[in-house]
């Protein structure tokens, strides 16, 4: 039977191949150190859990909630933007709560995309940035992901050569997977370009609070005029170690927020009300917990960079996010990121994410998530050291990808 039209547009999920190997190895008794999925291992702060449990005792909170988010949650997030970025938001018209930023992106794509629209997406990037629009019928054009002059050269080419003209541009800084940062000056230039060419800007700021070096990452909405064309997505998953709670936000341009709100109104009734109340409590009172999580990730980053380097794998220290974007060791580059990631599971009991899963230009990298404690990270480094020491023997038994074609 032929696949459905939208399913045909989705390639096989690259990460699933590594996940199957990982599950098989664990079933056979292997101790796999999982640095693949960005699934925070830190517990949700107890005060937030307690607030959710307290509110859940009221049976009235078990009824349908508000699709756009309860008023208290939207007000709390608007207040956060005011404190953190100096950005004033109307919680009634410029803020909508989402079931995580991933759902927000996918439903925004549904809201604004017509079949055949051209959307500019950085490459490599988090998969939903591309596939949310692909599932909505758009044509995705990949562009340079580095926030420098090459980015604007790529934008100029895209506007000149895309038919029809691009309707939207995705931004993601701090970037998943590359951990690159953008400056406010970069955002000023992007906003000016978008306004000149009538392009919608969708900024993914999920890692705004996980940064280690220099100034805190800015919001694109700090740029004068950004509200005319931009919406920004954030998430509580990493900031407050609440990934399973599924609370995120879209804020900014009223017309775009309204479109997303309308689509969501047909699809969901919002998160469980006690979760929304607890999320508002977190935003209003738990800033110290953000600092605690940031310091944990900083320490893990430093341990990972130092121990992997001693093992023979030089990993550039990420300035932000909970990920390192690591070049494949030279001897293994011909394998490609997927085969290298599979080898790490099989030979070193370490799982990472193949870079090609984030786009074709990620092929020579893997993403390493800081989701294990320092002891486990050092253990991973020891395993990798043994793996690299036997590289010649391993490669002798592996047929390079290029030879299979």
**What's the domain count?**
2
Strand content: 5-15%
What CATH architecture of the largest domain do you see? 3-Layer(aba) Sandwich
Number of discrete helical segments: 15
CATH topology of the largest domain: Aspartate Aminotransferase, domain 2
Strand order of the largest sheet: 2-8-7-6-5-3-4
Considering DSSP H and I runs of 4 or more, what fraction of the residues is helical?
40-55%
* Average of the residue pLDDT scores: 92
Pick out its properties.
405 residues; Aspartate Aminotransferase, domain 2; 2 domains; 3-stranded antiparallel β-sheet; 15 helices
Quick take:
This protein is α/β, with parallel strands linked by helices and 405 residues long.
Descriptive report:
This protein has 405 residues and is α/β, with parallel strands linked by helices. It has helices at 5-8, 14-27, 46-56, 71-85, 100-112, 127-135, 149-161, 184-197, 254-267, 273-285, 287-311, 337-348, 374-389, 391-396, 401-404, and strands at residues 33-34, 95-98, 118-123, 139-144, 166-172, 200-204, 230-235, 248-252, 323-327, 350-351, 353-354, 365-369. It has 2 domains: 5-43 and 289-390, Aspartate Aminotransferase, domain 1; 46-286, Type I PLP-dependent aspartate aminotransferase-like (Major domain) (Aspartate Aminotransferase, domain 2), CATH 3.40.640.10. It contains 15 helices and 12 strands. α2 (14-27) packs parallel to α12 (337-348), α5 (100-112) packs parallel to α6 (127-135) and α5 crosses α9.
Please give the structural blueprint.
Blueprint lengths: L4 H4 L5 H14 L5 E2 L11 H11 L14 H15 L9 E4 L1 H13 L5 E6 L3 H9 L3 E6 L4 H13 L4 E7 L11 H14 L2 E5 L25 E6 L12 E5 L1 H14 L5 H13 L1 H25 L11 E5 L9 H12 L1 E2 L1 E2 L10 E5 L4 H16 L1 H6 L4 H4 L1
Parallel strand pairs: 1-10, 3-4, 3-5, 5-6, 6-7
Antiparallel strand pairs: 2-8, 7-8, 9-12, 11-12
């Amino acid at each position: 039977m032929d696949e459905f039209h939208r399913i045909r547009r989705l390639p096989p999920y690259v990460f699933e191949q590594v996940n199957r190997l990982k599950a098989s190895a664990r079933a056979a008794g292997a101790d796999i150190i999982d640095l693949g999925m960005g699934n925070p291992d830190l517990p949700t702060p107890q005060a937030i859990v307690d607030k959710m449990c307290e509110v859940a005792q009221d049976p009235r909170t078990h009824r349908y909630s508000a699709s756009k988010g309860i008023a208290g949650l939207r007000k709390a997030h608007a207040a956060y933007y005011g404190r953190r970025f100096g950005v004033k938001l109307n919680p009634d018209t410029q803020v909508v709560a989402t079931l995580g930023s991933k759902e927000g992106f996918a439903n925004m794509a549904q809201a604004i995309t017509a079949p055949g629209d051209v959307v500019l997406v950085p490459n490599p990037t988090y998969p939903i940035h591309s596939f949310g629009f692909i599932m909505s019928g758009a044509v995705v054009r990949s562009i340079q992901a580095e926030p420098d002059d090459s980015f604007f050269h790529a934008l100029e080419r895209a506007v000149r050569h895309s038919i029809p003209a691009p309707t939207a541009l995705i931004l993601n800084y701090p970037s998943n997977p590359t951990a690159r940062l953008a400056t406010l000056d970069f955002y000023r230039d992007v906003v000016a370009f978008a306004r000149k060419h009538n392009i919608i800007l969708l900024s993914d700021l999920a890692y705004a609070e996980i940064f280690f070096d220099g100034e805190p990452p800015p919001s694109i909405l700090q740029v004068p005029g950004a509200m005319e064309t931009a919406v920004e997505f954030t998430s509580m998953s990493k900031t407050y170690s609440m990934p399973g709670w599924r609370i995120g936000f879209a804020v900014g341009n009223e017309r775009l927020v309204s479109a997303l709100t309308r689509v969501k109104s047909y699809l969901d009734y919002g998160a469980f009300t006690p979760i929304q109340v607890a999320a508002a409590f977190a935003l209003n009172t738990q800033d110290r917990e953000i600092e605690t999580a940031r310091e944990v990730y900083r320490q893990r980053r430093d341990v990972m960079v130092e121990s992997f380097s001693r093992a023979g794998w030089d990993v550039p220290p990420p300035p932000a996010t909970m990920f390192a974007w690591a070049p494949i060791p030279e001897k293994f580059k011909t394998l490609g990121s997927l085969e290298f990631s599979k080898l790490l599971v099989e030979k070193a009991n370490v799982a990472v994410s193949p870079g090609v899963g984030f786009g074709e230009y990620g092929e020579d990298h893997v993403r390493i998530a800081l989701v294990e404690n320092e002891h486990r990270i050092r253990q991973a480094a020891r395993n990798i050291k043994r793996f690299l020491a036997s590289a010649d023997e391993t490669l002798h038994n592996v047929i390079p990808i290029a030879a299979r074609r």
